[in-house]
Amino acid sequence: MRMGLFVLTLAFSCGLWPTCTWSQDAKTQDAKIKPIRALLVLGGCCHDYATQQQLLSAGITKRAHVDVTVAFDPDKTVRHLNPIYESADWAKNYDVVIHDECSSDIKDLAVIDRILEPHRMGLPAVILHCGMHCYRSEGYPEKVTPWFEFTGLQSTGHGPQQPIAIEFLSNAGPITKGMSNWKTINEELYNNSSGKLLDTATALARGQQKFKTKQGEEKTAEAAVVWTNIYREKTKVFATTLGHNNDTVADDRYLDLVTRGLLWSCGKLNERYLKPTGGQ
Description:
The protein is an alpha/beta fold. The chain has helices spanning 2-13, 17-32, 49-63, 109-120, 146-151, 246-249, 252-265; strands spanning 36-44, 66-73, 96-102, 125-128, 158-168, 182-190, 201-212, 218-231, 235-240. A 9-stranded mixed sheet has the order 2-1-3-4-9-8-7-5-6.
């Protein structure tokens, strides 16, 4: 009689006994999750990378089970190679690389091949904003250069700094599921010289920007602003041209988008990884 009462009391103290056991198991499993090791490469011309390295690393680790290592190059030109790339095994021990550098005047194919080699072997990537305009090797902008093949978009320039109206495409997939359209602050709308993404890429959102020319003529430009790319038939790449100004990079909507894109590229876009670690 006393034993039956004890078991009943234990069950009610946990709510429902099976749920209580599952909850403890889930916590144990979460504690054993190995954080995703992300390398954030940034620096170069035209952006406040000193601030954005903090905004991105803190924003991502606040949202997901990710540890972020920062490779920040304080040089403010477009021709200085981030020191992380001087080593052939620069990407060793990382699960994903976030390319946020602005290095358009680095054109040495040997260097570009060194940067791309880990991704050719399957290392996932996230490419942000000016990362789209880097490494302009021979043939730029007319042909699909090695870097364009990686990014999934042949982009050769951008418009003025004006707000961009972002429209997420319906049925675009899990990264942008549930996200609402919004209008940014002043941002640069990167063009799309070929008129569309490469065949390996899939648009997730488009942006529309209205502006006036120097002659006072009103214009409207539209281009893909968020997409995914499958590089060399196996490497998952998430990309967005948004992220010029600090207020955009600090926007919760932007950080949600980048974090979910990163997890998707690693095949980890699920509830177990959408939890903060604070690992920087």
